[in-house]
Amino acid sequence: MPKRTSSYRSWQLEKLKDPQIAATYLRGALDDSPETFFQALDKVAQAHEAAKSNGRSGVRKEPNRKASDNGSSRSNLLSVLTSVGLRLSIEPLGSTPHRG
User: Fold this and answer.
1) Is 87 in contact with 81 (CB distance < 8 Å)?
2) What are the residues whose beta carbons fall under 8 Å from the beta carbon of 95, sequence distance 6 or more?
3) What's the pLDDT score for residue 24?
4) Phi and psi, residue 32, nearest 5°
5) DSSP the chain
6) Residue 72 above 70 pLDDT?
7) What is the mean pLDDT of residues 13-37?
8) pLDDT at residue 69 above 70?
9) Which of 10, 35, 41, 43 is least enclosed, having the fewest CB within 10 Å?
């Protein structure tokens, strides 16, 4: 009988519970595009929701937004930061800031 393997999604959500892995994942997504970043952020939140019961994690599930909704406050955050010469940095709590 073939060995059963877990789904990629299950594996990914398990890995994203680790703050170091989640930070690296989010930094890469942020380098790609705002849409990719917010999709990745949703996955990290899902990983933590799976690890904790709803309500205790402090993360509220928002309805999915269309990736093409560039007028949303999500995209505006990154646009405002860029326009004033700043960028968002993602680091696990208690770590030395990433310089990149």
Assistant:
1) yes
2) 19, 20, 23
3) 92
4) -80, -60
5) -PPP---HHHHHHHHTTSHHHHHHHHHHHHHH-HHHHHHHHHHHHHHHHHHS-TTTSS-PPPPP--TT-TTSHHHHHHHHHHHTT-------TTSPPP--
6) no
7) 91
8) no
9) 10
Query: For residues 16 and 22, is the Cβ–Cβ distance under 8 A?
Result: yes
C-alpha torsion sign, points 13, 17, 21, 26: positive
Using the structure block, give the residue that is written with the tokens 């968002």.
88
Distance CA 53, CA 40 (A): 21
pTM of the model: 0.64
Q: How many residues make up the chain in this entry?
A: 100
